[in-house]
Amino acid sequence: MISSMTGYGSASHPITIGQGSFANLQVEIRAVNSRFLDLSFRIPDECKSAEGALRELLNKHLKRGKVEVRAAWRQSSSEHGHSQSAIAIDLAKLRALKDAQNAIREQFPSAEELRIADILRYPGVVADSDTAEDQWHGAILKAGEEALQQLLQSRQAEGQALAKVLTNALDAMQGMVTKLEPRIPEIVTLYQNKLVARIEEALGVHATQANIPFNTELLERIRQEVVLYAVRIDVAEELARLKTHIQVARTAIAEGGAVGKRLDFLIQELNREANTLGSKSVHEDCTNTALELKLLIEQMREQVQNLE
């Protein structure tokens, strides 16, 4: 199954932060498109020790995408349903922080005052709770794993939708190639005969006007050159390569996994063959097919950019 690079997952995990006081640790993981895997973390200081383990977990399951992990905790009610604060404030640190703010605002009157959230996050203002570091570590890993599973599910769901779009485009391309391929020998022969007829007519008119005998050797040489030119405008090989690339793309989609880069390369190859088909075209059917192929290829390119 192929996956999109965009997705979202969230999960929470309860944790005890003091006697009779509890918190709810919420983890969110968001992912958007990126050529490579780019991880960023915005997590509380209490959980910083788990960042390495979280990074390892994400690297194990994700291959591409710009991924942001956010975590925050909020104090909740106790088991008995009453809100109990177990947060101890270091008043000396709090007064020192206030004095520092006043000194700064004397120099910078327009500076904003500290918010409650800023004060609580300042190191040392909130005294250490009874919550051990390994509890925070375990809680964020547990919530992170659940959020990651949601993210993977959402990416796979979008990947299935993209796979359907890509498969439909490949079906349409296959139909165009299958329809045009049997007509190539006829198109080449028609163009060859048309070109020979024009040359014969031009030579005949010139010989008549100049009152000189018709040069059959020259005409035969021209016929040979026309045959060689017809070989150069034959697009059978391009159509064969198009069919091969289409089949390889189908196989990649069916096999699933991180196929974004592989499909991106195949898109380039499909576009190359479509361009050659258009440049060699000597018939309206070839030209129209090349244009329609390029439109489908461009649509596929846009979708492939979303794939992991």
Nutshell version of this structure?
61% of the residues lie in helices and 14% in strands. It is α+β, with helices and mostly antiparallel strands and 308 residues long. The chain is elongated and about 110 Å long.
Please characterize this protein's 3D structure.
There is one protein chain. By secondary structure, this protein is of the alpha+beta class. Among the domains are: 41 residues; 147 residues. The chain has 9 helices and 4 strands. Strands 1-2-4-3 form a 4-stranded mixed sheet. Helix 1 runs parallel beside helix 4, helix 4 packs antiparallel against helix 7 and helix 4 packs antiparallel against helix 9. The chain is elongated and about 110 Å long. It starts with 6 loop residues before the first strand and ends with a helix. About 3% of the residues have low confidence.
